[in-house]
Specification:
- The chain is mainly α.
- It folds into 2 domains: 93 residues, no CATH class; 137 residues, no CATH class.
- It has 11 helices and 6 strands.
- α4 packs across α6.
Length: 260
C-alpha cells in the first residue's frame, strides 16, 4: 500500500527569509503540490530527496492502531474478509498496548521501565490482554472485552475460517466502538498523557537519524482519527458509514494509493 506525503523541502525553506512569500514561491519551484509516493512500512520513516538534492525523512503522526484499522477497512472494501478480520484484530492488539502505555504514564511509570517490562510480553498477546484486564480492574472500569470476539478471531486466523462480509463488518464495528469509547475515557482522565504518548511515538526514531538529516511529521486521514478526539462528534460514525466514505471521498483516495 502506497500513500501520498508532502514533498515540501524545509531545508530549502531554511535558506530563504522564511516568509510566507518564500514558502509560496518554493511550493511552486519544488512542485510541492504533487506529493511523493511512499510505501507504508513498520518503521514509520519515509525518505524524500528534493530537486536540489536535500535528503529528508518524514514520519506519520498516526498511531499504528489507526493505520492498521484503515488497512483492514480497505481490505474489506476489496472483498478480502479474512484479511480484514486479521488486521482489525491487529489494530485492537496495538490499541491495547497504547492503552497500557497511557495508563502506565499516568501512574508515573517511566518510559524506560515501561519498555523494559513490555519486552517481556511484546510477543504474547495473552499477557498483554491480562495486563489490560488488571488495569481495568484496578481503576474500577467496565471490562469491554467480549470473549466471543476472541473465539471468532481465532477461528479466522488459526482455523482458516472464511468470514462473510457481514461478520467482518460486525467484528470491525466491535473493534471501532471498543477503541473510540476507550479513547473518550482517556481523554477525560489522561489528556496530558495522551500528549506524552504522542511525543514518545514521534521521538522514538530519533536515534536512527543522522544529525545532518531533518525529520518532519506528516498526517493522513484515518477512520479512528485520534486527532479529532476532542470533537463532540468523535466516535459517532459507524463502520459502514466510514467504509462508504472511504469509497466515495477523494480525500481518502488521494492518500491511500492501492499500488505495490
Amino acid at each position: 500500500m502506497k500513500i501520498g506525503i508532502s514533498s515540501f523541502c524545509w531545508d530549502c525553506f531554511k535558506q530563504t527569509g522564511q516568509t510566507k512569500e518564500d514558502y509560496d514561491r518554493l511550493k511552486i519551484e519544488l512542485n510541492s503540490d504533487i506529493d511523493f509516493e511512499v510505501e507504508l512500512n513498520d518503521e514509520n520513516l519515509y525518505e524524500f530527496v528534493c530537486p536540489k538534492g536535500h535528503k529528508a525523512l518524514t514520519q506519520l503522526q498516526e498511531q499504528k492502531f489507526e493505520i492498521l484499522f484503515d488497512l483492514a477497512s480497505l481490505a474489506l472494501i476489496d472483498g478480502y474478509t479474512k484479511e480484514a478480520v486479521s488486521s482489525y484484530s491487529s489494530s485492537l492488539e496495538r490499541f491495547i498496548e497504547y492503552y497500557i502505555l497511557v495508563t502506565s504514564l499516568r501512574n508515573q511509570v517511566t518510559i524506560d521501565d515501561f519498555s523494559t517490562t513490555w519486552k517481556q510480553m511484546a510477543k504474547q498477546s495473552e499477557r498483554q490482554l491480562g495486563a489490560y484486564f488488571i488495569l481495568r480492574l484496578m481503576e474500577n472500569k467496565t471490562n469491554k472485552w467480549e470473549e466471543k470476539r476472541s473465539t471468532f478471531r481465532n477461528s479466522v486466523i488459526h482455523q482458516g475460517y472464511i468470514p462473510s462480509s457481514e461478520e467482518a463488518i460486525d467484528y470491525g464495528q466491535y473493534v471501532l466502538t471498543f477503541i473510540q469509547s476507550t479513547l473518550k475515557e482517556l481523554n477525560e482522565t489522561s489528556k496530558e498523557f495522551l500528549k506524552k504518548a504522542m511525543f514518545i511515538h514521534l521521538s522514538k526514531n530519533g536515534k536512527k537519524i543522522p544529525k545532518n538529516i531533518g525529520i518532519g511529521n506528516a498526517s493522513m486521514p484515518t477512520i479512528i482519527n485520534l486527532r479529532s478526539i476532542r470533537n463532540p462528534d468523535f466516535g459517532k460514525i459507524t463502520l459502514k458509514e466510514a467504509l462508504e466514505s472511504m469509497q466515495e471521498n477523494a480525500f481518502y483516495k488521494y492518500f491511500y494509493r492501492k499500488k505495490i
